[in-house]
Amino acid sequence: MENRPIPAKKRGSWGKNWLLLFSVPVWLALYLHLSKIADLVVFDLLRMPSASQLAGTLRFFLFEVPKVLMLLVLIVFAVGIIRTYFSPERTRRILEGKSHFVGNIMAASLGIVTPFCSCSAIPLFLGFIEAGIPLGVTFSFLIAAPMINEVAVVLLFGLFGWKTALLYVTTGLVIAITAGWIIGRLKLERFVEPWVYEIKAGTAAAEGGRTPFRERIAAGLAAVKDIVGRVWPFIVGGIAVGAAVHGYVPENFMASIMGKSAWWSVPLSVLIGIPLYSNAAGIIPIVQALLEKGASLGTALAFMMSVIGLSLPETIILKKVLKLPLILIFVGVVGTGIMIVGFLFNFVF
User: Whose CB has fewer CB within 10 Å in the chain, the N or C terminal residue?
Assistant: First the structure.
């Protein structure tokens, strides 16, 4: 029987798959030895004294940067594959017909795995309204999607451990579900710009056939290239600031401003965080350093949530489809939820 050559396209696909399989043990071995590598560079190669503030700062930086970037590549790749199963149109169809509390829960849960950024806020909002999805359900999605994203979860897991990451996801979901439910009960549809209801979006083409898994892998790799390519400067910058705080900022100073004893620290951190322009990649490493210097968990968590969940650029973009009263109610309800979380965790921990 004649041996037929394997088509070039298939050979390339198999080659990529083998490369991915081979990279997993390499990734794991390198990740498990990052601490030793950082020690080797700082204390053996550079011969810096262990008690030096500069040595502590440099070791923090050399250990955290590769650790966070490696975790980010792994999780973004996995989430990129998952997202191929949840296009905006499919997400819209899942939420259609859902109302009240069940719809809020589903919308907030979908917000974690579906693609969302400030640039897609308007088309998603328009699509949801046109499909008849209740306003409160839509807001649960819009709150959860930017706040509970893979970058935030990866950074929290890498810097604080799985318990803090789980805590963040849980409280973020509670805020998204509750805030969306409250906005829905207030019947605020009159504060949506009239032209939004007049739009009749064209019916999306049916999704034909199943997507081959090699295309889903390609989507995961594309997500790594896009997301990691955009956020790595923020990660490096955030960890650099965090390393400086870790090495040089006195613990008593930080504890006096963001500690449990200062009752006003939680609302102040939320007020500071709302207009602050940053993202998870830039803010979470700084929060880690603040916690190590005496900031309380609730205050730091409230600050982080307000920065990520109430981004000023996203609020400005939503102003194109929402009237000012609804924008203010949205910020007020979410901000209040974040403060409650901050006070609660300051009390418990």
Answer: N
Inter-axis angle of helices 297-309 and 280-292, to 10 degrees?
170
Contact 283, 66 (CB under 8 A): no
CB 330 within 8 A of CB 296: no
Crossing angle of helices 297-309 and 162-185, in 10° steps, is 60
Chain centroid offset of residue 129 CA: 25
pLDDT digits (tens, 9 = 90+) for 30-46: 888 888 998 899 888 98
Domain boundaries, the chain: 18-201+212-348
Per-residue model confidence as pLDDT tens digits over 260-281: 777 788 888 888 777 765 666 6
Residues 6+ apart with CB under 8 A from 244: 57, 289
d(CA 330, CA 314): 12
Per DSSP, the residues of 2-20 read: PPPPPPHHHHHHHHHHHHH
| Regions of the chain with pLDDT less than 50 | 1-12, 118-119, 200-208
The whole-angstrom separation of Cα 175 and Cα 171 is 6
Place of tokens 């803010």: 283
Rounded Cα–Cα distance for residues 24 and 278 (Å): 31
Report the pLDDT value the prediction gives residue 311, as an integer from 0 to 100.
67
Q: Cβ contacts of residue 155 below 8 Å, gap of 6+?
A: 68, 71, 72, 235, 280, 281, 284, 285
Tell me the whole-structure pTM to 2 decimals.
0.64
Instruction: Output DSSP code: residue 41.
Output: I
String of DSSP letters for 279-324:
-HHHHHHHHHHHHHTT--HHHHHHHHHHHHHT-HHHHHHHTTTB-H
Location of structure tokens 């989507």: 219
* Residues whose CB falls within 8 Å of the CB of residue 206, separated by 6 or more in sequence, listed in order: none
Tokens describing residue 203: 């019916």
Question: Cα-atom radius of gyration of the chain, to the nearest Å?
Answer: 23
